[in-house]
DNA sequence: CATTTATCCTGTAAGC
DNA sequence: TGCTTACAGGATAAAT
């Protein structure tokens, strides 16, 4: 479930656990997660050994570790968790996790950084000039916490789309960081039907949606993100192994058929962009424009 | 051109 | 108990 809140919590966890440490060895146990590092797994490892980890940054669902090193080198270790990726900081003597695909040992022989990913949709690669903003992220829009976000432009782009608003929110080229869970939660909070066309949103709708997204994401970050299910394998955890708690605050996601916490009516589920979409038909009417206040 | 779908993977849970 | 099918946090190339 790594969406913006989970990635931000992971970023903060890495900032406090691996920043300032020097990479001693890199073990790639499965080639797929480093598929975007075009020179191959061995080159991926050798590009990182001896580098000191600096600041941990994030944009949308991507995060990167700036690498201090030879003067003038501005490279970064770029990471994406995909659907089921986890970054765990573990003692060197901890047994290998199931689906452990890459391990970073540090020169101080302290806890290791491990990349674990059941579905292997995630990826790790070195971005040569990626210290500020990796070139690989050129097509990814700023997220709602990015100071460079142009809100007027965002509203214009939303209202230029005829697709349903949920599909628009999931498009990382429009605004980044929002995934399936937080799209549903934010649209519920804003009182907007997920299939309302973007070009049918009023300015007041956009303003309410903007506030709802920011509040939803900010609260989720404070709660450590959302950890779903009980199976453990593919579940999101912070690098220190602690689970998130925001799933307890979900209003619509995963609540199909249960009573809406506002009006009591049943939560519906439909498919939007091949993703399960949860909403309250009463609180999120299809066509009617809801007054701002 | 904008928009939608099919696909990459493994695992779990539900239905028969 | 076993087998089959649907579904799961995302991103993107290919098709429409």
Note down, in words, how this protein is organized.
This protein is an alpha+beta fold. Helix content is 23%, strand content 20%. It has helices at 4-17, 41-48, 151-159, 165-170, 180-190, 203-222; strands at 23-28, 52-59, 62-68, 76-80, 85-90, 100-106, 112-117, 123-127, 268-272, 275-279. The chain has a 4-stranded antiparallel sheet with strand order 1-6-7-5. Strands 2-3-4-8 form a 4-stranded antiparallel sheet, with helices on one face. Strand 6 (100-106) and strand 7 form a beta hairpin. Helix 1 (4-17) packs parallel to helix 6 (203-222) and helix 5 (180-190) crosses helix 6 (203-222). The longest helix has 20 residues, at 203-222. It is globular and about 60 Å long. The chain binds a DNA duplex (16 and 16 nucleotides) through residues 1-3, 6, 32, 61, 80-85, 99, 117-122, 161-163, 167, 170, 172, 179-181, 226, 228-229, 231, 233-236, 273-276.
Summary tags:
DNA-binding, 23% helix, 293 residues, alpha+beta, four-stranded antiparallel sheet
Broad shape:
globular
What string, H for helix and E for strand, traces the elements in order?
HEHEEEEEEEHHHHEE
- Contiguous helical run count: 6
How large a portion of the residues is in β-strands, by DSSP E? Answer: 15-25%
Provide a quick synopsis of the model:
With 293 residues, the protein is an alpha+beta fold. Helices cover 23% and strands 20% of the residues. The mean pLDDT is 94.
Which helices and strands appear, and what pairs or packs with what?
Layout: H1 4-17, E1 23-28, H2 41-48, E2 52-59, E3 62-68, E4 76-80, E5 85-90, E6 100-106, E7 112-117, E8 123-127, H3 151-159, H4 165-170, H5 180-190, H6 203-222, E9 268-272, E10 275-279
Antiparallel strand pairs: 1-6, 2-3, 3-4, 4-8, 5-7, 6-7, 9-10
This protein binds a DNA duplex (16 and 16 nucleotides) through residues 1-3, 6, 32, 61, 80-85, 99, 117-122, 161-163, 167, 170, 172, 179-181, 226, 228-229, 231, 233-236, 273-276.
């Amino acid at each position: 479930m790594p969406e913006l809140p989970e990635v931000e919590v992971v970023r903060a966890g890495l900032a406090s656990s691996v920043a300032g440490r020097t990479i001693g060895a890199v073990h790639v146990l499965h080639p797929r997660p480093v598929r975007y590092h075009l020179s191959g797994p061995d080159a991926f490892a050798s590009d990182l050994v001896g580098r000191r980890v600096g600041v941990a940054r994030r944009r949308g669902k991507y995060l990167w570790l700036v690498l201090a090193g030879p003067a003038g080198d501005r490279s970064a270790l770029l990471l994406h968790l995909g659907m089921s990726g986890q970054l765990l900081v573990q003692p060197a003597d901890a047994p290998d996790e199931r689906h452990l695909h890459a391990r970073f040992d540090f020169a101080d022989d302290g806890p290791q950084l491990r990349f674990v990913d059941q579905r292997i949709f995630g990826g790790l690669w070195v971005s040569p000039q990626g210290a500020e903003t990796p070139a690989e992220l050129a097509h990814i829009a700023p997220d709602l916490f990015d100071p460079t976000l142009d809100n007027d432009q965002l509203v214009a782009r939303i209202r230029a789309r005829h697709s349903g608003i949920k599909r628009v929110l999931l498009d990382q080229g429009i605004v980044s960081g929002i995934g399936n869970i937080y799209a549903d939660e934010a649209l519920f909070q804003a009182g907007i039907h997920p299939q309302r066309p973007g070009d049918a949103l009023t300015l007041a709708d956009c303003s309410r949606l903007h506030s709802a997204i920011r509040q939803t994401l900010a609260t989720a970050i404070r709660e450590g993100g959302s950890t779903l299910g009980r199976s453990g394998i593919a579940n999101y955890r912070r690098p220190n192994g602690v689970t998130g708690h925001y799933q307890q605050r979900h209003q619509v996601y995963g609540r199909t058929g249960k009573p809406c916490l506002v009006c009591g009516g049943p939560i519906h589920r439909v498919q939007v962009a091949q993703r399960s979409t949860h909403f309250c038909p009463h609180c999120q009417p299809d066509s009617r424009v809801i007054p701002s206040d």
